[in-house]
């Protein structure tokens, strides 16, 4: 009998696994842009630990292994900035990313009063864009990452949940 993936709030003990998973998962994004200095690849373990403590962070677990992660925090305008969504390459395409997003959105709305959700993804990241659009995000603009990568900005209102099966 196989194990199922569970979604739960991250703990401080998860920080190192999140850090390693993030580094693995964002290699493909870096390759898309020929830029291995993107934020998820240069973030320090201490910085990840800090985010786990102060932000809303969820993980997907397969047994004791962290196989997915997402982070969010409420900004001054009441919106929630969601970022660094990642799922282990061997488990991508099975709905784990959508489940992580839904968990983060629910917590950010219910516990922190977020009125809308905002995220960014690289302009060439087609699978990311498909996922975000499938779960109700709409493109609202563009920006440039600190690393120089052109980004698509997407948003959705709190409560605008979309079936993701």
Task: Give a quick summary of the entry.
The chain is α+β, with helices and mostly antiparallel strands and 165 residues long. 35% of the residues lie in helices and 32% in strands.
Describe this structure in words.
It is built from 6 helices and 7 strands. With 165 residues, it is of the alpha+beta class. It has a 7-stranded mixed β-sheet with strand order 1-2-3-4-5-7-6, with helices on both faces. The longest helix is centred in the middle third of the chain and has 17 residues, at 96-112.
Q: Residue share in helices?
A: 25-40%
SSE order: EHHHHEEEHEHEE
Describe the biggest sheet?
7 strands, mixed
Structural class: alpha+beta
| Spatial strand sequence of the major β-sheet | 1-2-3-4-5-7-6
Tell me the Rg in angstroms.
15 Å
Tally of alpha and pi helices: 6
Compile the SSE list and pairings.
Layout: E1 5-9, H1 15-25, H2 27-33, H3 39-42, H4 45-54, E2 56-62, E3 65-74, E4 79-87, H5 96-112, E5 116-122, H6 126-134, E6 138-144, E7 150-157
